[in-house]
Amino acid sequence: MLNIAEELLLLLMDEDSGEYTPVPERTLGYALTGATLIELELRHRIDVGPEALVVADPTPVGDDLLDPVLADMVSVSRNAAHNAEFWVRRIAQSSDELLTRALAGLAAQGMIEADENRSR
Fold first, then answer.
1. Which of 104, 111, 53 is nearest to 82 (CA)?
2. What does the radius of gyration of the chain's CA atoms come to, in whole angstroms?
3. C-alpha 61: how far from its chain's center?
4. Chain-centre distance for alpha carbon 83
5. Whole-angstrom distance, CA of residue 17 vs CA of residue 32
6. Which residues of 75-94 are buried (b: 16+ CB within 10 A; e: fewer)?
7. Residue ranges of the alpha helices (H) in the chain?
8. Is 50 exposed, middle or buried (0-12, 13-18, 19+ CB in 10 A)?
9. Are residues 67 and 75 in contact, defined by beta-carbon separation less than 8 angstroms?
10. Residue 48 forms beta bridges with which residues?
11. 12, 50, 48, 41: which is closest to 29 by C-alpha?
12. First-to-final CA distance of the chain
């Protein structure tokens, strides 16, 4: 089953060339961050309220992209609640890791072929 971040990457790829539609790196990072947060919300792991975004269920979902983000949220949330802007900024700082994990997930599911020689 594809997560939203993986679906997003497939939408950005040209089927024939395997190249991404040109998107600024920062934009892609925030898009992957948003997709990750939406997926965690849809899986009932986080709850977004007007004042804070909180972990509703710390149980890992078994997804290599989502579980590290959820674990970080659990760890950081132990001492204080944080709003959505905090989480978007924090998660976006590791957007390169999100991209790598999403591409690895697509490759593991046979949706794309890994190309060790190709950079983003």
1. 53
2. 15
3. 13
4. 18
5. 22
6. eebeeeebebeebbeebbeb
7. 4-12, 25-42, 66-77, 84-92, 95-108
8. exposed
9. no
10. 53
11. 12
12. 24
Which residues is 63 bridged to in the sheet?
none
Closest to 84 measured CA to CA, from 35, 36, 48, 46: 48
Q: How many whole angstroms from its chain centre is CA 86? A: 15
Q: Residue 107 and residue 46: Cα distance in Å, rounded?
A: 27
Rounded-to-integer distance, Cα 112 and Cα 103, Å = 8
The confidence band for 116, taking pLDDT boundaries of 50, 70 and 90, is low
Q: 43 is written with which tokens?
A: 């899986």
- Per-residue model confidence as pLDDT tens digits over 53-97: 999 999 999 999 999 999 999 999 988 899 999 999 999 999 999
Q: Residue 17 has what DSSP assignment?
A: T
